[in-house]
Amino acid sequence: MKAITDDKPFIYQHDAPKKVKVITDSKWKSFIYRYDVPKKVLEDDFDWTNEEDYNDGFLKYRNIYYHLSEFLRNGMVDGYDGYFGHSFFSGVAIKISDDGETYKIATVTS
Is the pTM above the cut of 0.85? Predict the structure, then answer.
């Protein structure tokens, strides 16, 4: 990490990790529907969704529920379509099948 000043506000420049560790079972899994997600989880974590627009596209990985719309398409992990960051050093990567019905998921750490 290098400090950059050049008469500007003090900021840090951090070199992004060049390699990441991807842990996956490489199995295709089916998305789950809204009615499969516990009501308490919908109220606490998905209160921004509604039944009409967010009926499918949910998934559960390592006891955490996600919705497909939470993943960013940024090419961070080769071979995967999206990424959800839990921290600067870890997250979850997802690969969507060509028909959009199934997915592969992985834990990513740097």
Answer: no
Q: Residue 30 and residue 35: Cα distance in Å, rounded?
A: 14
Closest CA to 103 of 36, 57, 56: 57
pLDDT digits (tens, 9 = 90+) for 28-39: 999 999 999 999
φ and ψ of 78, to 5 deg: -55, 135
Residue 102 parent element (H or E)? strand 102-109
100: which residues sit within 8 A by CB, 6+ positions away? none
d(CA 89, CA 45): 22
Residue 21 makes CB contacts below 8 A (sequence gap 6+) with 108, 109, 110
Split at pLDDT 50, 70, 90, the class of 13 is very low
Q: DSSP labels for 33-54?
A: -GGGS-HHHHHHH-TT--TTT-
CA distance 76 to 108: 10
| Cα–Cα distance for residue pair 48/27, rounded to 1 Å | 30
